[in-house]
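FAQ: What does a multi-protein file look like?

Like this. Sequence, then tokens, then the next protein.
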Amino acid sequence: MRRLLAFAAAMLAVLGSMSVAAAQTGPRDVAVREIHGAPLANGGRLWVHIYHAKGGIPGPPGGGGGGGGGSCTDTNTQTGYTTFAHAKSNGLAFKLTAGSVPSYLGVSAVAATVGGASSGSNVGGFAEWNTVKSGYFTFSSSGGASQPADDGVNSVGFGRFVGSGAGSALAATWTWTNSSNTVTGADTFFNTNFTFGISATCNAVSTSELGDIITHEIGHTIGLGHVNDSQAMATMYPSAPAGETRKRTLTTGDKNGFLAALA
């Protein structure tokens, strides 16, 4: 009987460890809420900007300008921008948290989209912002952290959003600034409660387009805030419908905002 009890206890321990391991292989929870300049112990501040699905709170429904769900018209004429911090003068290096990438997307496809195409139109990602200041961003397809943290690693990853800002949040960016209000580091995470697609062609996917979202999120890493332009053309507009790709290309306002943040 004692042997049987010991065997049963051992099996329960194994099963328990298996269940824990299984839980750890799923999407990691990422706590999300909007934060605008929370003071930190080191004299700096933390900013968290949330990017909403169309109709998400707070703000306007994405895709204005009469285009309907996933508006396709994109112009470079709007000039508005807002800044909340100074951009880091010597650039930022980002790393993908490869192990967090959903299998239906694939690491290579995500890395190519986030990094941006090397040529052509509607490239999006870090390459699009580098057209304003060449070489400002670098991006590696591995080495990112599993959670947003002021850890010296600028990460792009995926996680299951939880918390007060999680409901309509497609993605969020955590930006840390020093006592001079200059960006020292940033992390961007996508919410795995949503399904994403990849395409540089408007409405080619019925889901939220990854390149559209990351190009917007990158703006926060250089100190740019949201812009509510009437036609929803700005890359820094705070929400977007499924299928939209026009945030992949910067407007005059987005470009001017980058230059202003660098000044």
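And here is the next protein:
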Amino acid sequence: MEVLPTVAIGINLYFVPTADGGRQGPLPGGFAAETRFRYRPNWGLPGWADGEQAGALVLGFSQEDIHPGDTVRAVIAPFFFEGVPAWRDIQPGDELRMYEGLHICGRGAVLWVKPSSWPMPEEDQDRFSRWLETG
């Protein structure tokens, strides 16, 4: 399998309450090895119009059973990093909009950006998961 460049992005992610258009129910969450990269929302990047989206997989979340209205840490990794140049411009302090379909289900404040590759090496997954666990 070809190894491609990407980044890991650490965010503080607020889940929009259901009453405000967010998810209808909780998300399992967590960062255990067997749950990594299972959740695949799309993301609106800074400067993009509402509804414009790019994909990034979620490595994991700092907690399990995330309910609408909760705030958690998350680590995401864009796929098609090379094909979406705007990912290269992401920096701490930026806001990302998390989409499920056309609905904004979360808003993430970027805390850090670190180089990685796809598929993401296990040592990177473990390092970023430790940040989810300990902050």
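Q: Is there any per-entry metadata?
A: Some entries carry free-text notes. For the entry above: The chain has one domain: 4-134.
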